[in-house]
Write a structure and sequence with these properties.
The chain has 110 residues and is mostly helical. 90% of the residues lie in helices and 0% in strands. The protein starts with a helix and ends with a helix.
Length: 110
């Protein structure tokens, strides 16, 4: 067996291994970038929704500020019920959203 031929084969294997490591590294970086983007987008949506609900709540409070204490209490109870319903809905949908995000993040287009 020619020693130079063996060296060439080893060198090819090392080169192929380095290329594979680079591809894996790029895929990991892309995955992390996508996860970060998804997290940031979700945080923005939550912040926007929270602001919208707070504005709506403050508007109702200001509309009923002249009314009796019972109206304010009723409004707070309604708001709490809506928040509870939204949290329940979010917890039901959350696994599906996570599954979808993981699917898109882990799928590598070639």
């Amino acid at each position: 067996m020619d020693p130079m031929k063996g060296q060439g084969g080893i060198q090819m294997l090392l080169t192929a291994e380095q290329e594979a490591q680079q591809i894996i590294s790029n895929a990991r970086n892309l995955k992390m970038k996508r996860l970060k983007q998804a997290k940031e987008e979700a945080e923005r949506e939550v912040a926007n929704y929270r602001k919208q609900m707070e504005d709506e709540y403050q508007k109702k409070i200001s509309e009923t500020s002249g009314s009796s204490e019972s109206s304010v209490k009723q409004l707070e109870e309604e708001t709490e019920m809506k928040i509870k319903d939204l949290k329940e809905t979010a917890s039901k949908v959350s696994p599906e959203v996570v599954k979808m995000l993981v699917k898109y993040i882990t799928t590598i287009k070639t």
